[in-house]
Design a protein that fits this description.
Layout: E1 9-16, E2 33-37, E3 40-44, E4 50-56, E5 63-67, H1 78-89, E6 94-99, H2 114-129, E7 140-145, H3 147-157, E8 177-181, H4 194-201, H5 207-212, E9 226-231, H6 240-251, E10 256-261, H7 279-290
């Protein structure tokens, strides 16, 4: 069972996601960029993905891989990554911030699966190293914000599809639970975030391509338990994204919990300033019930 302990991160370790060749990578002169926006850190042009481990002083065996958002165009690596990882450490949860490649035809052979390759490799890595890191290989979750939520939901629904066909490692890439915060779920035109869809699939994807990345259509009885948070007034990613995923989980008898706030807009990170309720407290309770 998950217990709450008040400790800060004991160690922070960043490492390349891949020990060797990055799958589907193309030679390019593009360089990674770090910019500061309203006091926050944003990363774009990710060429070499990394996985940063935040280890608490007393790990309880549970781990979460965090995918920051940014419309598949950049990564809000601080308030949707590092800050969240440190918060998990207070629970004894080991957290990993995934700096995943952002879809770009110049640097990858198939930009539509590049991010999923990285998410699956992160799950594979944590599961293979779980015992060495004091983790339970059957308690590995994936979390995502906004477009990172789309990536996390894709990992939670397409785990039988091995995005890197050259990888013969048979380690399971199915996450044991999913945490989706104001996520892009659907590529259905009426509710999607068009920027995320265009960045991942291009300006004119086929109907079949859009369907294959509309995660509300991909939920099955084997989809892992899921926790969702969204604001009703989100003007960037309509709340219908979370609602549609929730309904699909209900239909398929997947354990799911959805928290909707009347206000908060988009991109509020750990703290929705329009309410005194902290969604992370609700998440903590949910995780206690799972583990």
């Amino acid at each position: 069972m998950l217990t709450t302990i008040n400790v800060s991160a004991q160690t922070v370790t960043e490492a390349p996601l891949y020990a060797g060749e990055i799958p589907g990578a193309k030679a390019s002169s593009i360089q990674e960029k770090i910019i500061f926006v309203n006091g926050g850190v944003r990363i774009s042009n990710v060429i070499a993905p990394t996985l940063t481990r935040f280890s608490p002083a007393k790990p309880n065996g549970v781990s979460v891989i965090i995918c920051p958002g940014g419309g598949y165009g950049r990564l809000a690596i601080d308030h949707e990554g590092v800050e969240v990882a440190k918060k998990f450490n207070e629970l004894g949860v080991t957290a990993f911030v995934l700096k995943y490649r952002l879809p770009n035809d110049t640097i990858m052979a198939d930009k539509s699966i590049g991010p999923l390759q990285d998410a699956q490799q992160a799950i594979r890595t944590v599961r293979k190293q779980a015992i060495a890191w004091g983790l339970n290989p059957n308690k590995i979750g994936i979390m995502g914000f906004s477009a990172g939520g789309h990536l996390a939901a894709t990992a939670a629904t397409k785990f039988n599809f091995i995005a890197d066909a050259t990888n013969k490692d048979t380690t399971s890439v199915r996450p044991d639970f999913a945490i989706l915060i104001y996520p892009v779920i659907s590529f259905e035109d009426s509710i999607t975030h068009k920027g995320s869809k265009t960045n991942l699939l291009g300006a004119k994807p086929t109907a079949e391509q859009a369907k294959q990345f509309s995660n509300e259509l991909l939920v099955t009885k084997n989809t892992p338990p899921s926790f969702l948070v969204h604001a009703g007034d989100d003007g960037t990613v309509p709340v219908q994204n979370s609602i549609s995923y929730y309904q699909s989980c209900i239909r398929n008898k997947v354990p799911v919990e959805l928290h909707l706030y009347p206000k908060g807009g988009h991109g509020f990170g750990l703290h929705n300033k329009t309410t005194s309720d902290e969604w992370f407290d609700r998440l903590t309770n949910w995780m206690k019930n799972i583990y």
